[in-house]
Predict the 3D structure of the following.
Amino acid sequence: MNKILTAFFAVSCLFAACDPKEAVETPATYDPTPYDLKTGDFPTPDLPADNKLTLAGVQLGRMLFYEKMLSKDGSQACADCHKQQDAFSDIRKFSIGVENLPGKRQAMAIMNLAWHQNGLFWDGRALKVRDQALKPIQDPLEMNETLPNVVAKLSAEKKYTDQFIRAFGNADVTSESVGLALEQFMLTMVSNHSKYDQFLQGKTTLTAAEEHGRVLFFTEFDPFGSNKGGECFHCHAGHNFTNDEFMNNGLDTDAGMADEGRKNVTNDAADRGRFKTPSLRNIALTPPYMHDGRFATLEEVVEHYNTGVKNSNTIEFILQYNLQPGGLRLTAQDKSDLIAFLKTLTDTDFLMNAAYAQPE
């Protein structure tokens, strides 16, 4: 009887092992399928020719963006300081790294990087998105990890070696390919569905306050006539509401300038106090403001340009009237309406776009 039972179980196991319904894992193969970047009414961006966007590459970058293994102790990912609900910004004044230490500057929002062609970070020290992507990993105040350690950890995970094969044709993880994958994902993060975009397309109308704020935003200030404006468009123009330049917007006097900004990169005295002009898209969602997060609200920001601009050797000439007694002479209603317009730049679709969310 025992022999019969043994034979029965042996035959059963054989059939179970050969069950045609059992899934057979397909080896990962290179997938060059292009990623179709939707830019809407924005101009076609000048994407990197040596890092073509592919579905597999973008997916790998998305995985890495949310991967906590990129940090020293496995506690933080890029997404922890760039949260989607906050338009991929950090609403803390300074991000707190894995060693529980604060950063030195306010974390910039990640969006529309495909149209940034003049360096990344507040001081422009990273020339390309791939360069920017790797710096927080190595920063002692942020993720505090080494690139060799990151490569070793990712190389030990089959889900990653398989995805590197799909994205780049081989399983050899390198710091360069990590940067390229993160670049691909971040270049796809497009925000262009705000109320203001719908207004430009004739799909909605602005309220009286929003329209008055729009006029103020795009109008120059004339101290000798009746023309009253906020002059905001000089620095925050175009589809992305930034001139992509480094500017001194009158935050400090020469004596009070604790952070020299762009000068730390170029060593050019003319760059002292200059910082990257941020996009104003989703600005209502990304407090605090300025490179050091000194302004907690948009009201404080508007009042700075109205009456708070400080003079220094490198201040922008276009702020000459802001420096005059009385500044731009904006009334309380003017300032309120200007902020109402800025809020029309909020893109709720961007906050809920599943393509940018953490992969399951």
About this structure: Confidence is low (pLDDT under 50) at residues 4-18. The domain at 195-344 is CATH 1.10.760.10 (Cytochrome Bc1 Complex; Chain D, domain 2). Strands lie at 246-247, 275-276.
